[in-house]
Specification:
60% of the residues lie in helices and 12% in strands. With 363 residues, it is α/β, with parallel strands linked by helices. The chain folds into 3 domains: 9-197, P-loop containing nucleotide triphosphate hydrolases (Rossmann fold); 203-280; 286-361, Orthogonal Bundle (Arc Repressor Mutant, subunit A), CATH 1.10.10.10. The strands form 2 sheets. Strands 2-3-4-1-5 form a 5-stranded parallel sheet, sandwiched between helices. The protein has a 3-stranded antiparallel sheet with strand order 6-8-7. Strand 3, helix 8 and strand 4 form a beta-alpha-beta unit. The longest helix has 23 residues, at 144-166. GO terms for molecular function: DNA-binding transcription factor activity. It comes from Mycolicibacterium vanbaalenii (strain DSM 7251 / JCM 13017 / BCRC 16820 / KCTC 9966 / NRRL B-24157 / PYR-1) (Mycobacterium vanbaalenii).
Length: 363
């Protein structure tokens, strides 16, 4: 079994991903059974898996496909077509079809490229269906929000028309959040997806994940500590700090041991140090005004109002409100209302670990 790639699950084999899987049993069973039933009875329950970045969408997708195709009877009736996670080569509906053809094989890919040059997307659709040879096409598209944005409403309509008229294609997508292409009546795919959300990783799941890592590297002291009442308490304490994102716990598992986890802070600091390049890059991509608001939120421990944040960073309420709106749209912050005051919005960081990171880096 190869060592799994934490940031690129698509580069890992199924056995490696299965070894890392904890919790979410009901969802994995539901999705696996849904695809198997579709291959048998011709139903096409298109599914969108929604969860924040790092929550394990790609991991879940790959495990579900592995389990589905491990059944020989299902595998004979399914052609899996995996569109690349980054979707960087997609700028139109024809591009999406070419990427799907590339996932099938070089011969179909070359045929699709020629048809794209001839501006014949219908011909590419026909080539893909011919390659399926009567099998159900399981079209798995990660970051579906980005793909739909790239192909536009016209491309979305073309995809919907192909899926509906061919009755051969089952779409399984992922997205960090719901987006207008599936939630707005103005777009062709409105109401067409069954929406599934990934359940959060509990402290018990996190403990199981750490024990699995300890077993794989033969660290019996760490495994023994994790099974003790003190070990479970320390895992719960760390869970409150770093949250429920599986990727964070896998990173922690690579750098934690019994002494560091027992003291809590060394284990968390080791994780924060490993995350520095990732967080730095994301923060540097923000405009300066929005960076200042994020840092100000991190310096406190509770949600803040627009007026409080505006005063703290030295801008007008209007400027702060507009910047916070952009940060909320991009998933950096969340807003809420107090029970007794429905007029004031209170903002806080979406990622609990971001506050710890900024405080750690700020000394």
């Amino acid at each position: 079994m190869t060592r799994p790639a934490l940031f690129t699950p698509s580069a890992s084999d199924t056995a490696a991903l299965e070894a890392l899987t904890v919790g979410r049993t009901d969802l994995l069973d539901t999705l696996t059974q849904r695809i198997r039933s579709s291959a048998r009875d011709g139903s096409r329950p298109h599914t969108l898996l929604v969860a924040p970045r790092g929550a394990g969408k790609t991991h879940t997708l790959r495990v579900v496909l592995g389990r589905t195709l491990s059944d020989a009877a299902t595998a004979r009736h399914v052609l899996p077509v995996m569109v690349s996670e980054d979707s960087l080569a997609i700028g139109s509906y024809a591009d999406l079809l070419v990427e799907a053809a590339r996932a099938i094989g070089p011969q179909v890919a070359e045929q699709a490229r020629q048809l794209r040059r001839a501006r014949d997307p219908v011909g590419i659709e026909a080539a893909i269906i011919e390659a399926a040879a009567g099998r159900m096409i399981l079209l798995a598209i990660e970051n579906l929000d980005r793909v739909f944005d790239a192909i536009g409403a016209t491309g979305q309509g073309s995809l919907r028309a192909w899926v509906e008229t061919s009755t051969t294609v089952l779409v399984l997508g992922t997205s960090p959040e719901l987006f207008p292409g599936v939630s707005s009546r103005e777009y062709p795919w409105y109401g067409s997806f069954m929406i599934e959300t990934l359940p959060e990783l509990t402290a018990q799941d996190a403990g199981e994940l750490l024990r699995g890592a300890a077993r794989r590297r033969g660290d019996t002291d760490f495994h023994r500590f994790l099974q003790s009442p003190d070990g479970r308490a320390r895992v719960a304490a760390v869970h409150k700090i770093i949250g429920s994102t599986p990727r964070m716990w896998h990173l922690l598992a690579e750098c934690a041991d019994a002494p560091s986890l027992d003291a809590v802070t060394p284990a968390v600091n080791a994780l924060l140090d490993r995350l520095a390049p990732q967080y730095q890059q994301r923060l540097w991509q923000l405009p300066a005004g929005e960076q200042r608001l994020v840092v100000e939120l991190a310096r406190g421990s509770e949600p803040r109002s627009v007026s409080e944040l505006a005063e703290a960073v030295g801008v007008s309420n209007q400027s702060a409100s507009a910047a916070l709106g952009r940060l909320a749209a991009e998933g950096w912050v969340t807003s809420s209302k107090a029970a007794g005051d429905r007029r004031t919005s209170w903002y806080d960081l979406t990622d609990p670990l971001l506050r710890s990171y900024l405080q750690y880096r700020g000394g």
